[in-house]
Amino acid sequence: MRVWFNRTFSSVYAAISLIREADQDGRFYLIYSNANPHAGAARVAHAFHVEPTGLEAEAYLDWCLAFCRAQRIDIFIPGREATLISAAQARFAAQGTRVLSAASAPMLDLLHDKARFYATVDLPPAPPPECHPFTDIGQFDTAHAMLRARHSKLCVKPAQSVFGLGFSILDEERSSAALLLAGAQFRIGLEDLRRGLAELGSFRTMLLMEYLDGKEYSVDCVGDQGRLVCAVARRKSQLAGQGQVIDTRQDIVDACARLAGAYGLNGVFNVQFREQGESLRLLEINPRMSGGLGMACVAGPNLPYIALCGFADGYGAVPVPPVRNGIRVAELNLATELH
After folding, report:
1. Which of 209, 304, 215, 305 is nearest to 251 (CA)?
2. 226 and 322: one domain?
3. What's residue 98's pLDDT?
4. Is 231 exposed, middle or buried (0-12, 13-18, 19+ CB in 10 A)?
5. Predicted local distance difference test score (pLDDT) of residue 239
6. Do residues 132 and 208 touch, judged by C-beta distance below 8 A?
7. Rounded Cα distance, 55 and 42, in Å
8. Chain mean pLDDT for the chain
């Protein structure tokens, strides 16, 4: 069975490696493509192809369709342009390729926009943080007055972003220059921010939110069209160098199951939570493999292999090993030569 991963995040290296490790019968032939000829995952795939550059949206979709025909792809697991490809599943199916999408195209659009997503969440055991979107200084000031009256610490981040890019905690006492000199990461002076926003006029949607300062959980999951098949939760250490602890609490599993059903989640996806006091709060759903996927799989379940086998054959015959709760995991860097 020929399986294609197109250009995606670096976690694809772990995913391909894990699938090959578990696929003792050699059933899956894994193909990877990237515009970068030195991409690391090229080392572990059965075959690697260089993607063309300069193709956007529909042109890239047409290239993907042609690639699937030429390479006789049975299963396509998209990264780049995942939303567009999900919307075109019928076109791929018509030529013999099944697309393993984390959700429907409209749902992917929703999950990528935290402002819209938060407004739809119905999860009383783990609600999202209180937040207000803003696109100009007036909206920011209004949101700040409302939230600051209820929360001692606030933060900002873009409504659409990955890897936490653009996230900052508001500092009401120090300037951005003072924060820079102090080496205070992910912080911005409130007055400096206000001045910059006023100069910009209007801008893309940002979120002003209550800051959650408790333990953070990253949960790697496998779903089957809205049914949670498996979940492995990693509790992140607040101190560098201590790795992460596998802590798959039942309330976290229950929350992920409810979210999977509400948003029709499928294949491998990731859910982020953070504690605030004694309560669990939802940060986001990432409809893709997380950067820590490999660490989660150390705990027992080989998530990308489970998802691929389940999608190929149905989950009835796919064994899911128990999660080894309580173990400490980490990723180690390994130097290598690129070809």
Report:
1. 215
2. yes
3. 98
4. buried
5. 74
6. yes
7. 21
8. 94
